[in-house]
Design brief:
single chain; 418 residues; alpha/beta; four-stranded mixed beta sheet; 13 helices
């Protein structure tokens, strides 16, 4: 199994180009199922999740190829209506296949991801919304079977939580349903706006994306499009924290500063020098930083996908801080691994209390999930001595050219292939 070896203690300095957003590219890839016309998507990151989505589309019957950072999808074969476990288990975003196939084929069967209890995960938000549009749903043999023999009709859907995935799935469905659909308490993430922009290019009628209420007027047919994926705000945040934790300075190019406002505001309060232009952010350590408490929230609040990285930084700042996780359950799996570096962290339900320590010592650590992996790499970059990070396949799901970019900033990092 591949590993990352880091010899920490080096100040990261330099500039990098932020890759395209994985969380934007995935729903846009699934949007290609809504048309038989050719499409071209640029600024697509090179990640295993993207590769999985492309394999998924080809399996379903959509001829899709990736060359560099460009994806092209062509006229379709006859679509399959079943998404098997072997594909779905690799990527939870596979649930986004339901909307496009349901509205085009009037039936779809999607395997539940392994260990995914409907009540424990927000999959039930998707299914309740499909029912509102007129779908019939059953769960049998590990598959969610959804049908709409008479087609789907617009409805008013109120989410109990502003789920990003559910908002995307209903957008992908309602654009070809009959009549008007209103999504209340919709997710407001930039990735939602990016998807809505794509659907509009295809001929859809979508209003209010990026606000709590989205209106969609169904149309009869959608056509092809060309689109550049927005920059990855989570990748950008990770590199800003890398500058802070190593007492260095980085310049991020091809980024949208407004998408990082909640993170940048907190970094500024810590004392990091942040400067922004229209499409760049520079971050420079100029003095000892002060810890700041954060509460994760739906956008535009502090992102849950930056919680783990923020924890690594707080562990090395003089003083005490608190992190409250309000989006996902059980998202503190990185705590025990950070403690291997010497972190002083106490978990109390959905809250962690952190007492800053003077330094980290390099350690062997294991990645539990994508963002936890980023947190451990950051800790290793700041630690004295050698850190070995295992199970790095998680990182390959969400960080494009991580080793190359960190080396460009001066990190002593290498991947050992086993």
């Amino acid at each position: 199994m591949d590993k990352i070896v880091i010899r920490g203690g080096k100040k990261l300095k330099g500039e990098i180009v932020v890759s395209g957003s994985k969380n934007s590219a995935l729903p846009i890839l699934f949007a290609t199922l809504l048309t038989d016309d050719p499409v071209m998507i640029t600024n697509v990151p090179s990640l295993t999740d993207i590769d999985t989505a492309i394999a998924f589309l080809n399996f379903i019957g959509k001829k899709t190829v990736k060359e560099g950072n460009t994806v092209k999808a062509y006229s379709s074969y006859k679509y399959k209506h079943i998404a098997p476990y072997d594909l779905v288990r690799k990527m939870r975003a596979s649930i986004l296949i339901m909307g496009p196939l349901l509205v085009r084929l009037k039936r779809v069967e999607v395997s539940l991801p392994g260990g995914c209890a409907i009540g424990a995960r927000p999959v039930d938000i998707h299914l309740a919304a499909f029912k509102k549009l007129g779908a019939k749903i059953s769960v049998k043999g590990g598959y969610v079977k959804t049908s709409a023999k008479n087609g789907l009709k617009g409805a008013t859907i109120s989410f109990r939580f502003p789920s990003v995935g559910a908002t995307e799935n209903i957008l992908l469905t309602a654009v070809l349903a009959k009549g008007k659909t209103i999504i209340k308490n919709a997710a407001r993430e930039p990735e939602i706006e990016d998807l809505a922009n794509v659907l509009t290019k295809m001929g859809a009628k979508v209003m209010g994306a990026g606000t709590k209420n989205i209106e969609i007027e169904g149309v009869d047919k959608l056509h092809g499009f060309m689109h550049e994926v927005i920059p990855d705000r989570i990748e950008a945040a990770t590199y800003l924290i890398a500058a802070a934790i190593t007492k260095g300075g980085v310049i991020l190019k091809k980024v949208i500063p407004q998408h990082l406002k909640s993170v940048n505001d907190k970094l500024k309060k810590c004392g990091l020098c942040i400067k922004e232009t229209k499409n760049t952010i520079s971050a420079e350590w100029v003095k000892n930083l002060k810890p700041q408490n954060v509460k994760t929230e739906a956008y535009p609040g502090f992102p849950t996908d930056v919680q783990a990285q923020w924890m690594s930084l707080m562990c090395l700042l003089n003083g005490e801080s608190c992190i409250e996780e309000n989006v996902f359950e059980n998202r503190f799996l990185h705590v025990s691994e950070l403690q291997r570096f010497g972190a002083d962290i106490t978990v109390n339900g959905k809250t962690v209390n952190i007492k800053g320590v003077k330094e980290f010592s390099g350690a062997p650590v294991m990645v539990s999930d994508l963002r936890a992996g980023a947190a451990l790499v950051l800790a290793g970059l700041a630690a004295k001595g050698k850190t070995v990070v295992s199970r790095i396949y998680h990182l390959n799901r969400g960080y494009d050219m991580l080793e190359k970019k960190l080396k460009k900033l001066g990190a002593d990092i290498r991947i050992i292939h086993n």
